[in-house]
């Protein structure tokens, strides 16, 4: 292997040296043809290109080539050494500047072009010109008066050689045609340029001189159409046209030649700059498109882009079967809670890389949000989908994430659905989500395939319909607020109503039992509670009776929300409602399950005037011990005890005990589910403070209650942001 490498290097060394010697000869020919003015020294461009792209191992090409040309010219032996040293110093300085300014070989950015032209091309030839002309002066090859013009000529020829030849060699070495048509198209452009250049050269008189400068638009077009390759090629063609024009004149005009050469240099700069600007613009557009369609954390398609890919696949397929996997990480919240969201984000990024590495390259991955991912499998069968899901499940299960001294592992629940061409993207995503939820319900860290005849699937379909309908119902008025009177048993008290939620559609009214459990399961309760509180306080603000109060039920997730207190204060302030006119109801089980947070949240709000009621009081034995710890103003005895009050002595004893306990704590007591005169009479005899039930008041629209005052009004949706 080493011998083969050495043989290739030797052949390359001989070949490049021969080319270098030939380019030196071209430079000498141009120098002679232009009366000592060197318009272009192409060998300098080759020297820098060799070292830039091939490395320092190619320095012998420059040394041998320069020594050979010195011998061939019959120069004194000192030039056999000084010539190679001068050219090597130029190439090495140029290479150092390229590395110093980190110039990309493709001159992709404007800064690359400017640094290459203003630093490399202008500075690198300076030491070579000074060293070479000084040696020629010392060897009596130049006179004192010729020293400065010779140095300037040397510098100019090498600078243009670097500006024109180096990019051409480096860029062309890296450029490949994407198609045969593109290659043929480019060949046609080259032929057109050759014809145009030849025509200019053959034009008699000064017409060619003027027409030459009209080539700049063609340079611009080539640079924009073909990028850096077009710009580099255009610069070389311009130089060739200059040489042709001078050859036609016989005796070159020094001033005109200088102008033409300057035009070539400026045109090359313009071409490179335009190509770089166009490249940066395309790269910026590509980055913006990438950011617009990809998740910034994982690099996977975001939800919107993934949905569009699914749409495109469905539109393209005819009778084809595909598969979709819906992945939801299990116990990922532990990482966020333990180490913070930054650590959780890094873990998600690593898991995204793991998922892509564990599956076929043709599969399409997306991050749907949070710790949820999706995999689209084009032309996949059920067996392939199940196999891939199991591979991904095992890969995630075996994954370990280290954070300091802690090591975390997670599982994943995966839902699978097969896709047919007649499907809709929404239907596919819904089925996959349902299958994933089933995997979680079955114990997590497992795979579940959606099947149309699965009863669990049908139930979840129904639940998801409820969720989608509820979002819309908050907008179009199908979700409505009802109220039921909480009446004082003795004496007069300010009117108090409990706010009840109803879903109304087609004249049918659905009670909360039909949709609240679904909303709780899918995390919709904070949003729903926020909507209810907002609408209730809006109505209260319009009430003519400033003594009227409303009692509003809250879920446990809302009470747990860190924004709950701030949102309640903000809503009361927005509608200018005295907090004392609002009573917030929580169930006994919620208060006990979240005792510490419940105490803190309730006391903060109680300090500013809000009241609290404990609903379903007595439903748990622990309620007796926890009552003192909870800052409540009112307890509502569980209606199941009130309902059996007439015929069951045990219920009577329980109600009396709960009432006495509340009174001992100085807490108002309400009896729920009061439906008969006998229940009413017994409760009054026990000394109950308030009663509530169908016997007192059948629930009706909040708007009906408000309209009785003449100017109470509830309008549409104000906010569905939720307590989050």
Topology:
Elements (H helix, E strand, L loop, with lengths): L1 H32 L8 H13 L4 H15 L3 H24 L9 H14 L1 H14 L5 H31 L5 H23 L4 H6 L3 H34 L4 H40 L9 H14 L5 E9 L2 H7 L1 H18 L5 E6 L2 E6 L4 H17 L2 E3 L2 E3 L2 E9 L5 H17 L5 E3 L5 H22 L2 E10 L7 E10 L2 E3 L5 H6 L3 H17 L7 E5 L2 H5 L3 H11 L7 E6 H6 L1 H13 L3 E7 L5 H4 L7 E4 L1 H5 L5 H16 L3 E4 L5 H10 L3 E2 L8 E2 H6 L17
Parallel strand pairs: 6-7, 9-11, 11-12, 12-13, 13-14, 14-15, 15-16
Antiparallel strand pairs: 1-3, 1-6, 2-3, 4-5, 8-9, 8-16, 8-17, 9-10
Helix pairs in contact: 1-2, 1-3, 2-4, 2-7, 3-4, 4-5, 4-6, 5-7, 5-11, 6-7, 7-10, 8-10, 10-11, 13-14, 14-15, 16-17, 19-21
Can you describe this structure?
This protein has 724 residues and is of the alpha/beta class. The strands form three sheets. An eight-stranded mixed β-barrel has the order 8-9-11-12-13-14-15-16, surrounded by four helices. The protein has a five-stranded mixed β-sheet with strand order 2-3-1-6-7, with helices on both faces. Residues 710-720 have low confidence and may be disordered. The protein has four domains: 1-174, Arp2/3 complex 21 kDa subunit ARPC3 (Orthogonal Bundle), CATH 1.10.1760; 177-293, no CATH class; 303-451, Reverse transcriptase/Diguanylate cyclase domain (Alpha-Beta Plaits); 477-707, EAL domain (TIM Barrel, Alpha-Beta Barrel). The protein is 61% helix and 13% strand. It is elongated. α1 packs antiparallel against α2, α7 packs across α10 (216-249) and α10 packs antiparallel against α11. It is built from 28 helices and 17 strands.
């Amino acid at each position: 292997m080493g011998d083969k490498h050495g043989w290739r290097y030797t052949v390359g060394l001989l070949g490049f040296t021969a080319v270098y010697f030939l380019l030196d000869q071209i430079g000498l020919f141009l120098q002679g043809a232009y009366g000592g003015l060197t318009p272009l020294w192409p060998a300098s461009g080759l020297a820098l290109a060799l070292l830039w792209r091939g490395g320092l191992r190619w320095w012998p090409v420059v040394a041998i080539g320069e020594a050979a040309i010195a011998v061939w010219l019959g120069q004194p032996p000192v030039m056999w050494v000084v010539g190679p040293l001068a050219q090597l110093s130029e190439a090495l300085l140029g290479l150092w500047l390229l590395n110093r300014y980190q110039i990309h070989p493709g001159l992709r950015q404007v800064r690359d072009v400017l640094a290459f032209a203003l630093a490399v091309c202008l500075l690198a030839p300076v030491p070579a010109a000074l060293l070479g002309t000084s040696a020629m002066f010392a060897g009596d090859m130049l006179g004192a008066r010729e020293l400065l013009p010779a140095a300037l000529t040397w510098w100019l020829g090498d600078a243009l050689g670097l500006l024109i030849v180096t990019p051409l060699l480096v860029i062309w070495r890296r450029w490949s045609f994407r198609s045969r048509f593109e290659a043929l198209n480019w060949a046609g452009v080259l032929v057109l340029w050759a014809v145009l250049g030849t025509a200019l050269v053959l034009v008699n008189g000064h017409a060619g001189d003027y027409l030459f400068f009209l080539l700049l638009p063609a340079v611009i077009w080539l640079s924009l159409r073909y990028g850096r390759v077009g710009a580099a090629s255009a610069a070389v063609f311009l130089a060739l046209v200059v040489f042709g024009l001078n050859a036609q004149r016989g005796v070159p005009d020094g001033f005109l030649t200088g102008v033409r050469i300057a035009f070539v240099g400026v045109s090359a700069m313009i071409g490179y700059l335009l190509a770089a600007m166009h490249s940066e613009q395309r790269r910026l557009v590509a980055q913006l498109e990438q950011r617009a369609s990809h998740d910034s954390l994982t690099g996977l398609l975001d939800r919107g882009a993934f949905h569009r890919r699914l749409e495109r696949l469905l539109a393209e397929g005819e009778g084809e079967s595909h598969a979709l996997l819906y992945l939801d990480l299990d116990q990922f919240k532990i990482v966020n809670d333990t180490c913070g969201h930054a650590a959780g984000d890094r873990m998600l990024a690593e898991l995204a890389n793991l998922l892509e590495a564990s599956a076929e390259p043709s599969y399409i991955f997306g991050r749907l949000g949070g710790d949820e991912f999706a995999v689209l499998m084009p032309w996949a069968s059920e067996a392939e989908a199940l196999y891939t899901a199991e591979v991904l499940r095992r890969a995630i299960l075996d994954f370990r994430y280290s954070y300091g001294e802690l090591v975390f592992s997670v599982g994943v629940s995966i839902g699978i659905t097969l896709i047919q061409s007649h499907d809709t993207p929404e239907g596919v995503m819904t089925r996959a989500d349902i299958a994933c939820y089933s995997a979680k319900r079955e114990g997590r860290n497992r795979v579940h395939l959606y099947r149309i005849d699965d009863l669990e699937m049908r139930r979840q379909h129904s639940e998801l319909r409820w969720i989608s309908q509820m979002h819309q119902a908050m907008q179009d008025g199908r979700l409505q607020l009802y109220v039921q009177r909480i009446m004082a048993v003795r004496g007069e008290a300010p009117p108090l109503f409990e706010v009840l939620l109803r879903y109304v559609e087609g004249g049918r009214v659905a009670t909360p039992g039909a949709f609240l459990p679904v909303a709780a399961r899918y995390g919709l309760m904070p949003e729903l509670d926020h909507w209810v509180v907002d609408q209730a306080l809006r109505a209260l603000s319009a009430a003519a009776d400033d003594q009227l109060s409303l009692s509003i039920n809250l879920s446990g997730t809302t009470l747990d929300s860190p924004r709950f207190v701030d949102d309640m204060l903000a809503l009361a302030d927005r509608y200018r409602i005295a907090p004392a006119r609002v009573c917030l109801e929580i169930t006994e089980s919620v208060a006990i399950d979240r005792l510490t947070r419940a105490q803190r949240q309730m006391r903060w709000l109680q300090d500013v005037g809000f009241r609290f009621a404990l609903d379903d009081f007595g439903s748990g034995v622990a309620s007796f011990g926890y009552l003192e710890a909870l800052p409540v103003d009112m307890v509502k005895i569980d209606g199941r005890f009130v309902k059996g009050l007439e015929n069951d002595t045990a219920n009577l004893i329980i109600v009396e005990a709960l009432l006495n306990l509340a009174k001992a704590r100085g807490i108002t007591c309400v009896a729920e589910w009061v439906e008969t005169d006998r229940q009413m009479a017994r409760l009054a005899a026990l000394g109950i403070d308030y009663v509530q039930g169908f016997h007192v008041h059948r629930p009706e629209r909040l708007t009906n209650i408000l309209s009785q005052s003449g100017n109470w009004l509830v309008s549409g949706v104000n906010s569905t942001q939720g307590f989050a």
